Amino acid sequence: MRVGLLTGGGDCPGLNAVIRAVVRRGLREESTTFCGFRSGWAGVLAGEWVELDRKSTSALLPRGGTILGTSRTNPFSNGADGVTPVRESMEKAGVNVLIPIGGDDTLGVALKLHEAGIPVVGVPKTIDNDLGATDFTFGFQTAVQIATDAIDRLHTTAESHNRVMVCEVMGRHAGWIATYAGMAGGADAILVPERAFDVDALCERLKVRHKSGWSFSIIVVAEGATPIEGSFSTIAQDTDAFGHARLGGIGDALAQQIEEKTGFETRVTVLGHVQRGGTPTAYDRVLATRFGVAAMEAAIGGRFGVMVGLSGTDIVEVALADAVSSPKLLDPGLYETASVFFA
User: Fold this and answer.
1) Which residues on adjacent β-strands are paired with residue 302?
2) Which residues, 6+ apart, have CB-to-CB distance to 7 below 8 Å?
3) Beta bridge partners of 164
4) Per-residue pLDDT tens for 295-323?
5) Label partner for 41 (CA 20 to 30 A): which of 77, 206, 271, 338?
């Protein structure tokens, strides 16, 4: 067996741990070799790969990013025939099994390839934690910890200056990072994509909080959060190869609204790609390792068209079609628990 690995979409703490685990588990089998395609599906289309072995995958466990590089390339963009060039590239590299590591876009491509008869085993990756059929994705816990640390620091400067601090975190469709980090950081309001918010009601709550003796407030907002229709809007950026708008601006727009409506000095911090960077937490290193080993075992067993996932404390195999059918949105019960502590 010759396995080709690739990492697609945004970079994520734990990607290298998956690569390491796949290779280490595979090397226990006879006549198993590995190569890594550069820059996600772009490297597959261009036929660019590197050999992977024990030496080239050593010391990867704590390393952030991905040694293979990544991109948001879509082989099926604009109706293109993505199957033929992928097959040809696999043949040139001698690859007979693909293990793509990515989110719904990367694994959506993997599903199309599986349906065309290409052996594929997927590994879920997204710091947003919005991929279906798995309780958690690696990288999420690291992003939450980074955001929580930032919120802790914003507390001290907000209190010192009697300010409202708006912290914008990632989360295009789902507010998992915002809610977890907001709860852990003691936010006074958390705004998520699943619930359109009323900026006037928010400002009234902030006024009541400040009248009650508090001189500062912390607002955590996911990048995909939107106000109720007709209140105010943000400007959508251009789209990527999968048709997703490149979001940005809700934090700045919200801060301006709060300052205008309350008179409270308001500042915004956009964490952005800081959430993706650096070394993964211990939890994400372990989860990524378990995913990598399980993905290789599925390939060895000839079980293709599946994605490995986490169910409770168990690693399971689920159909790729189930994993990418719809985004996993925020648990309403979790948000209700968080709302107990809102201003």
Assistant:
1) none
2) 15, 19, 40, 66, 68, 69, 70, 100, 101, 102, 125
3) 217, 266
4) 999 999 999 999 999 999 999 999 999 99
5) 271
Angstrom distances, CA of residue 6 to CA of 52, 94, 174, 288, 322: 11, 15, 25, 15, 21
| 280-294 b/e (C-beta count within 10 Å ≥ 16 → b) | bbebbbebbbbbbbb
| Contact predicate 146/278, CB 8 Å | yes
Nearest CA to 124 out of 280, 278, 316 is that of: 316
Q: Which fold has domain 2-139+280-323?
A: Rossmann fold (3.40.50)
Distances (CA, A) of 315 to 134, 243, 281, 310, 337: 9, 31, 19, 5, 28
The highest-level CATH class for domain 143-276 is alpha beta
Paired with 50 in beta bridges are 36
- Report how far residue 68's alpha carbon sits from residue 8's, in angstroms, rounded to the nearest whole number: 10
Distance CA 50, CA 31 (A): 18
Strand pairing class (164-169; 97-102): unpaired
Q: In what order do the strands lie in the sheet with 217-222?
A: 189-191, 217-222, 164-169, 266-270
CB neighbourhood size of 312 (10 A)? 7
What type of residue sits at position 333?
G
Three-class DSSP labels, 247-289 = CCCHHHHHHHHHHHHHCCCEEEEECHHHHHCCCCCHHHHHHHH
pLDDT band at 197 (very low <50, low <70, confident <90, very high): very high
Whether this prediction's pTM lies above 0.90 is answered by yes
The residue count of the chain comes to: 343
Domains of the chain, residue spans: 2-139+280-323, 143-276
Please give the C-alpha separations between residue 126 and each of 165, 189, 292, 340, in angstroms, as whole numbers.
27, 24, 15, 28
Q: Identical fold at 2-139+280-323 and 143-276?
A: yes
Residue 230 has pLDDT above 80, yes or no: no
Q: What is the pLDDT of residues 97-156, one digit of tens each?
A: 999 999 999 999 999 999 999 999 999 999 999 999 999 999 999 999 999 999 999 999
Positions annotated as catalytic residues are 128
Amino acid type, 147 = A
